[in-house]
Amino acid sequence: MSKKELLQNGVNQVFFEEEWYPPLSEALKNLTAAQACWQPEGKAANTIWENTNHLLTFKERLLSRLHKDDSFVAPQNNDETFVQSGANDEDAWQETVKRTLHVHDALQSSLASLQEAELDQPSPSLPVWQQYLNILLHDAYHTGQIVQLRKLQGSWPDKRSYL
Questions:
Q1: Helix (H, G, I), strand (E, B) or coil at 160
Q2: Of 9, 42, 54, 90, which sits most exposed with the smallest number of CB within 10 A?
Q3: Contact 146, 28 (CB under 8 A)
Q4: Where are the alpha helices (DSSP H) in 114-155?
């Protein structure tokens, strides 16, 4: 399996196809804005909405690098990526979910258009393949947090079947 095929497989699994863990699309499925804004007592965790925006930031950054688009404005620090706008605003939450699907599709399309040799090119410093791999691992990590939040709030099924 080539590097590109390995990454394409990872992109599908982390977002759409459930294998070892639920993909991000399942973790966000059927969530309301109120559920996306929920935070456990003590505020020890980011909300689902904050986690989703955090993931979007790094995916949008990778897309801007791939397309040599200088319009992306990087946050000053990691904390600024955990944002939540329009608390309990259903339309705003659905727009965030839609944007997440769009960005993921764009990353998938960009990967499909790359030649194997382009994956080794630094952009700006890390090779493109490593940036994709980092995005995949990052998504898996935060998807786990989202599922945990859903379990704590009672919006995740007690029993799920997959495969």
A1: coil
A2: 42
A3: yes
A4: 128-153
Peptide bond into 75 cis (omega under 30): no
88: left (phi over 0), alpha (psi -120 to 50) or beta: left
User: Could you tell me what percentage of the chain is helix, strand and coil, using 3-state DSSP and rounding each to the nearest 5?
Assistant: 60, 0, 35
Whether the CB-CB separation of 61 and 74 falls below 8 Å is answered with: yes
φ, ψ of residue 120 in degrees (nearest 5): -90, -5
What's the CA gap between 52 and 103, in Å, rounded? 12
Nearest alpha-carbon partner for 157 in 24, 26, 51, 52: 26
pLDDT of 33-48, one tens digit each? 999 999 998 867 899 9
Q: What is the distance between the alpha carbons of residues 103 and 1, in angstroms, rounded to a whole number?
A: 25
